[in-house]
Amino acid sequence: MSKLVSVVVIGGSHAGLAVSHKLLRQTTRARITLINPSDEYYFNIAAPRFLVKPDSLPQSKYLYSIPGAFRDYPADRFTFVKGLVTKIDYATKSVSVGLAANSAATATPAPTHNNATSFSFDYLVIASGSTTPATLGRSGIQLPFKSTAFEDTKKVIREAQVKLSAARRILIGGAGPLGVELAGELAEVAGPKKVTLVSRSRELLEGATAPVQRAASSLLRQRNVEVLTEAAVVDAVYEAHTQTWKVKLSTGSTYTVDAYIATTGTIPNNAFIPKSFLNAQGWVNVDSQLRVLEDGVSRSDTYALGDITCHPYRLLSRVPLQAETVVANIVGEIEQGGKVRTYDAHAQKKMMVVPVGQSTGTGHVGGWTLFGCLVWFFKGRDFLTYKAPKFLRGEER
Ligand SMILES: Cc1cc2nc3c(=O)[nH]c(=O)nc-3n(C[C@H](O)[C@H](O)[C@H](O)COP(=O)(O)OP(=O)(O)OC[C@H]3O[C@@H](n4cnc5c(N)ncnc54)[C@H](O)[C@@H]3O)c2cc1C
Questions:
Q1: From the CA of 190, how far away is ligand 1's center (Å)?
Q2: Does residue 227 fall inside a structural domain?
Q3: Both 173 and 221 in a single domain?
Q4: Dist. CA 162–CA 63, nearest whole Å
C-alpha cells in the first residue's frame, strides 16, 4: 500500500473540524493531524445567550469533545494534538507545537526542547481563526466570545456569567450583531439592569439594510435599552477601589458602570504565521483556490480558510463552502484527479440574523427582511446550538 499523505490542520474550531472530517471521508490516502490548544469544541455563536442566561442552555449544547468526534475513524488516519503551533518551518516541512500538560498526541513526533515538539506535513491547512479584545480581557470585562488557549473554558464561562449577573449598570461599546444581541439578552434578565449600547455610526448594525437597522434600534428602545448613536468609547478605566468602570465617550460624557463590554475588534491568531503570508492587517492572503499566497505567489502545499484569511465577512456561515473548496483541492492533488475548485466570497449571499431577546429580532437574507418570528425560528430560540453537532462533525453545508 502507498504511504499516507500527511495533512496538518492548525486550529480545531469550525473551520479546522470541517476540513479534517471532510478529508477523512473523501480520501483514504491522507493522515490528519489536528492541532488545537483545547480538546473542546466551543460553539461560541451562542455566547450572547448563555453568558447572560446561564440556565437557558446546558453546557452540553455548546461544548463538545474534539477527540470524541473522531473516534469512528481508523487510528492510523487521525491524531489530535492538544497544543499551540508556534512556528512553521518550510525547510523541514514541519510545525513546532507547544504542548499542553495532558496532550492527547499519539503520533511519534520528533522531540525538541521546552515541552515543545514538531509534526511534519505534506500539506498544511491554516484555520487558526481570530479572537477579540474582550476574549483576551484587553478591553472591558473578560468575556469568552472565542475560546482562549489552554484556559479552562468552563471556568472562564462561569466567571463571566457571575460578573454579568452581578452587574447592574452595563455599557456595551459597539453596535454590530454581537452588541445588539447582548443588549437584547441583558434587557430580558431579572433585576434592575440599566443597559446602554453605544454605536459609532448613525445606525446600529452597520452593513445591514435600512429596515433592519431601524428594527434593531426600535426593538432595543422598547426594552428600555439606552441607544447612543454617533458616539464612540474613547477611554475605559477600571477603578479597583469602587469596582466600577469609568467610560469616556467621544460626545464628552462619562458613564460609571459595573461592567463595560467591548464588542468591537477582531484580532488575527497569526503569531506563528510567516509575515510573507500576511496582508497589512495581519490576515492570510489566499488565492481563489484558497491556497496561501507567499509574497503574492501561490504555495502548492499550504491552504487557509475561515476567519484567518483576508476575505471579508468573518462569519461561520462562510466556513462550510470554504472547507469544501480546500478539501476538494487537496483531494484532487492527492488522488491526482478531479476539477480545481474555486471560492468567491462576493458570490455568497449576504445575510444577517440578529435575535433581540428570546422571542424576536431582525435580519435579512439578501434584500429580504426577516420577520421577528422567523428570526426566533432560525436563531433566537436556541442561538443555532441545534447546528453545533453538525459543525462538530463537519456535516454542515
Ligand atoms: C460572539 C460571537 C458570535 C458570532 N455569531 C455568529 C453568527 O451568528 N453567525 C456567523 O456566521 N458568524 C458568527 N460569528 C463569527 C464566527 O464565530 C467565526 O466566523 C468563526 O468562529 C470562524 O471559525 P474559524 O474556525 O475560522 O476560527 P475560530 O472560531 O476563531 O477558531 C480558531 C481555532 O484555532 C485555534 N488556534 C489559534 N491559534 C492556534 C495555534 N497557534 N495553534 C493551534 N490552534 C490555534 C483557536 O484556539 C481556535 O480553536 C460570531 C463571532 C462571535 C465572536
A1: 30
A2: yes
A3: yes
A4: 19
Q: Does 9 contact ligand 1 (Cβ within 6 A)?
A: no
**Is residue 294 in some structural domain?**
yes
* Cβ contact 140:245 at 8 Å: yes
* Cα separation, 243 vs 59, whole angstroms: 29
What pLDDT, on the 0 to 100 scale, is given for residue 99?
A: 83
* pLDDT of 78 higher than 60: yes
Regarding whether 93 and 160 lie in a shared domain, the answer is no
Q: Within a domain: residue 343?
A: no
Query: Over the stretch 325-338, which tens digit does the pLDDT of each residue have?
Result: 999 999 999 998 87
**Residue 268 Cβ < 6 Å to ligand 1:** no
Distance separating alpha carbons of residues 33 and 41, to the nearest angstrom: 16
Quick check: 362 and 370 in contact, CB under 8 A? yes
CA–centroid distance, residue 292 to ligand 1 (Å) = 19
Ligand 1 atom with the smallest distance to the CA of 308 is 26
Q: Say yes or no to pLDDT of 322 above 50.
A: yes
Q: 84 CB less than 6 Å from ligand 1? A: yes
Q: What is the reported pLDDT for 261? A: 98
Q: What is the CATH number of the domain that holds 216?
A: 3.50.50.60
Say which residues have a Cβ less than 8 Å from residue 297's Cβ, sequence separation at least 6. Answer: none
The ligand 1 atom nearest the CA atom of 314: 19
Give the pLDDT of residue 162. 97
Q: With a 6 A CB cut-off, is 317 part of the ligand 1 pocket?
A: yes
For 262-276, write each residue's pLDDT tens digit: 999 999 999 999 999
pTM of the shown model: 0.95
DSSP state of 379: I
Q: How far is the CA of 373 from the centre of ligand 1 (A)?
A: 27
Domain-ending residue, one of 335, 351, 375: 335
Lowest mean pLDDT among 96-105, 115-124, 229-238: 96-105
Q: What is the pLDDT of residue 100?
A: 63
> Do 204 and 274 sit in the same domain of this protein?
no
User: What cell does 325 get?
Assistant: 473548496
- H helices of the chain, where? 14-26, 47-52, 153-166, 177-188, 210-222, 319-335, 372-375, 388-392
pLDDT score, position 337: 83
Same-domain status, 147 and 258? yes
Q: Measured from the CB, is residue 133 less than 6 Å from ligand 1?
A: no
- Please indicate whether residue 128, judged by its CB atom, sits closer than 6 Å to ligand 1: yes
- The H or E element spanning position 124 is strand 123-126
